[in-house]
Write a structure and sequence with these properties.
Strand 3, helix 4 and strand 4 form a beta-alpha-beta unit. The protein has two domains: about 140 residues, Nitrogenase molybdenum iron protein domain (Rossmann fold); about 120 residues, Rossmann fold (3-Layer(aba) Sandwich). The longest helix has about 40 residues. It is of the alpha/beta class. The strands form two sheets. It has a four-stranded parallel β-sheet, with helices on both faces. The chain is built from 13 helices and eight strands.
Length: about 325
């Protein structure tokens, strides 16, 4: 048998194998193309780093989105969160990712950096959207102006993916923005009554809201040290404690998700001096809408400020 005859069966087999490979690649491309088409035409897969942004996305997106939130436990410290492989897989299937940014959820940045370059999701970074700069407060959900900007940007991102659903998305956006109206009215009333009233806080979690109301915040150096993960100096601690024991502030604000001996002592001093204590959180409680959560916080704030009217430094 000649060499050509010996080689011929192999050439035939190789040709058949190539046809099989080409057919398989074609099938895979059709499946991928169909999957991408389904992803574009069906509900948009949205992954929100924090439940508060996930709820807003759900309200604005309605049936046009399928939202998954990663940080959903209001009893946990979000700054101590560690992402899991499951979180990475969720991000890998997302069409839109909502990140708080501002150093608040750096774990998400690391997960996104580990992803591929194909079908990268649209990333709505709240810090970038609102013009956050290093050192600014990153608890953006306590500022209604920023929340409005996020909701509006999210509706636009969804509309770019599902252009035939833009009208419906804009309708739901208007409904959500209208729902913020009563919250703004409460903030305006609180500002009229309590503008300039001195308060103190263990960390700046609620600072954007107190700024809107016009409350005068004491012990800023103490708060910034806590925010930066360092221990406040002796002079900052002593000054904070004097503000409480001498009743220089009307209200003490504590983060309910980061408690410890230091915050326990501040609360003990405040209560001993007859100063009300307001606990606020960083995470949307399960089953609540954003606007209902904030309304409850504002109600408790109004009640606490009313109780503290006898404190030194505020109107009686």
């Amino acid at each position: 048998m000649s060499a050509d005859c010996m080689y011929f069966p192999f050439r035939v087999a190789r040709s058949g194998m190539m046809r099989l490979i080409c057919a398989w690649l074609t099938a895979v491309m059709l499946v991928v193309s169909g999957a991408r088409s389904a992803r574009a035409d069906g509900p948009i897969a949205v992954v929100a780093a924090e439940a508060v942004w996930g709820d807003i996305a759900r309200q604005v997106g309605g049936p046009d989105v399928a939202v998954t939130s990663i940080l959903t436990n209001p009893a946990a410290d979000p700054h101590a969160f560690e992402a899991s492989p499951m979180d990475g897989r969720r991000l890998g299937s997302a069409r839109i990712v909502i990140a708080n940014g501002g150093g608040y959820d750096g774990w998400l940045d690391r997960l996104m950096e580990g992803g591929g370059s194909i079908d990268r999701p649209v990333v709505l970074n709240v810090a970038a959207l609102v013009g956050w700069r290093d050192g600014d407060n990153a608890h953006f959900w306590y500022d209604l102006t920023m929340v409005r900007a996020v909701a509006t940007a999210f509706a636009a991102d969804c509309g770019a993916i599902l252009p035939d659903r833009r009208a419906a998305l804009q309708d739901r956006l208007r409904q959500f923005l209208d729902a913020l109206g009563p919250l703004q009215q409460r903030i305006d009333r609180l500002r009229e009554r309590y503008h300039g009233v001195p308060v103190a806080a263990s960390e700046p979690i609620f600072g954007l809201m107190t700024h809107q109301i016009g409350l005068t915040m004491h012990d800023a150096d103490f708060q910034h040290a806590v925010m930066n993960g360092t221990d406040p100096g002796p002079s900052e601690v002593a000054g904070f404690e004097r503000d409480l024991t001498d009743r220089r502030v009307r209200l003490l604000i504590l983060n309910e998700q980061t408690t410890g001996p230091a915050t326990d002592r501040l609360e003990q001093l405040a209560r001993g001096a007859g100063i009300p204590v307001l606990h606020v959180g960083e995470s949307l409680p399960p089953g609540m809408r954003y606007q209902d959560w904030i309304a409850g916080v504002l109600d408790r704030l109004a009640q606490a400020l009313g109780q503290g009217q006898g404190s030194v430094g505020g109107p009686t």
